[in-house]
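In response to reviewer comment 3 from the previous cycle, which asked for concrete evidence that the modeling workflow produces usable outputs, we include below a single protein chain processed end to end. The sequence was submitted unchanged, and the resulting structure tokens are shown without manual editing.
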Amino acid sequence: MTPSSPLIWGTATVLLDVKGLSTAYQGLIAISDISLNVAEGEIVVVAGANGAGKSTLLKSISGMEVPQKGEVIFAGSPIQGMAGHKITAAGIAYVPENKRLFPRLSVEDNLRVGSYLYRGRPDRYAPLDKVFTLFPRLKERLTQRAETLSGGEQQMLAISRALMTRPRLLMLDEPSQGIMPKLVDEIFEAVKAVRDSGVTILLVEQRLVESLEIADRAYVLQTGRVTLQGTAKEIADNPEVRKAYLGI
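The workflow returned the following structure tokens.
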């Protein structure tokens, strides 16, 4: 395992290719020279301690932050510097750590907001079939305000609202945060089900054991840099990772 961006094995198509990305806040470097890639159909995990730069990485890809250096190539086209709504329209959906739901709107209205890019089209709400297949609980709660849902249900709604944008790549920032322990496995199973439905996943998570169980590959960040990378099994078996992140 090396810190550089690995080749994708076999005949898989690279969907997201991040090359030498650096982002700073007020002169302080948050991520430095990060390179990674995600192939079509993969779940790729980005792990690391608090402050390692994981969220900054996703924000830099999604257009919420402007990188100072590097390239972000999505589906063969450069997207760094593009406005966030254009990146969403290109096929990347980002679910931030705080979910950013509209708490006083109903479940149905939150989902409608997610389909805004397709307003005026007769198939605007076509992704609802996928959403309700993945998360049947939401169909039972359509008229409830988002703020009345449990933490796990709110996370399901946040993911579902992102799926209404019809993404090719879904980026999730700490989806298990704030979830009751007994529902954590359900969230990870939902993430896997989203991938199995045809959406590629880039997942930031501190629950490394659970995330590696569903992932294909992983990167480990430390102080804004990639320090380890490999298959999920390689990362899980790495003695440095087991000591630092798994307590073994």
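The chain has one domain: 41-57+82-244. We consider this sufficient to address the reviewer's concern, and the full set will be provided in the supplementary archive.
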